[in-house]
């Protein structure tokens, strides 16, 4: 794909230009959203729009929901199957931190081909050294300030892990660098509450709503560090979907089998909403 979305229209990527004084570039002043596209449709589009619009409101970024919706629709048609990232910045501004008097947000969107190799892939975790600040807006919204996640992801890979698991300032499990976390305890799935510094993830919401129909009881409870090492987890996000995970090594092979009903329900939900079945495209056997 060579076209991107910039301020309400598709343009060739080589022709797209963002001002060097854009606060997204100079200050990381903005938010973004990433969504799965199947059959030219955004999976759980309304949930994505709701969250992105709420984040823009929380950060005082004045942008109409209709602009976000138009960007998703155009990019979904452009890519067909893949992922979309929309970024909203505060736009250009003078030096300093004060809001511009007349902010004019920049809306940028891009799309990438479908990466089915990420779906349901088991992950190895390691505890991050940096703590997640549960009092910060950056913990509850997908802001452009991702330095902690970048640094800790590099450190995780250096010790043979796939991704870091962040604790908050109270020593409770919050999330990984790129995903929400559910601890698996028998037929119980336990995920930290948003107040522990957790992003209101789209797939997190889907699991909370749909896991009971697959035989799981779901709870929002704080997860203490003391129980982290011997536990097994699911990491959820829009591009990995449901990823079995463990700290310090590979998750046990049987974990994927335990999650099979939930995995099948998710694939059914994607088929129902987007009109295409991803099972034939998965790298392993489909359910």
From TrEMBL:
Looking at its record, which EC class is this enzyme?
Answer: transferase
Name the keywords, alphabetized: Amino-acid biosynthesis, Aminotransferase, Branched-chain amino acid biosynthesis, Transferase
| InterPro entries the UniProt entry points to | Aminotrans_IV (IPR001544), Aminotransferase-like (IPR036038), BCAT-like_C (IPR043132), BCAT-like_N (IPR043131), Class-IV_PLP-Dep_Aminotrnsfr (IPR050571)
Q: Single Gene Ontology BP term? A: branched-chain amino acid biosynthetic process
Its pathway is: Amino-acid biosynthesis; L-leucine biosynthesis; L-leucine from 3-methyl-2-oxobutanoate: step 4/4; Amino-acid biosynthesis; L-isoleucine biosynthesis; L-isoleucine from 2-oxobutanoate: step 4/4; Amino-acid biosynthesis; L-valine biosynthesis; L-valine from pyruvate: step 4/4
Q: What's one GO MF term for it?
A: branched-chain-amino-acid transaminase activity
Keyword flag Amino-acid biosynthesis: yes
What single Pfam family name could you report for this chain, choosing any that match? Aminotran_4
Q: What is catalysed by this protein? A: L-isoleucine + 2-oxoglutarate = (S)-3-methyl-2-oxopentanoate + L-glutamate; L-leucine + 2-oxoglutarate = 4-methyl-2-oxopentanoate + L-glutamate; L-valine + 2-oxoglutarate = 3-methyl-2-oxobutanoate + L-glutamate
EC number(s) per UniProt? Answer: 2.6.1.42
Q: Which family does it belong to?
A: Belongs to the class-IV pyridoxal-phosphate-dependent aminotransferase family.
For this entry, the protein name equals Probable branched-chain-amino-acid aminotransferase
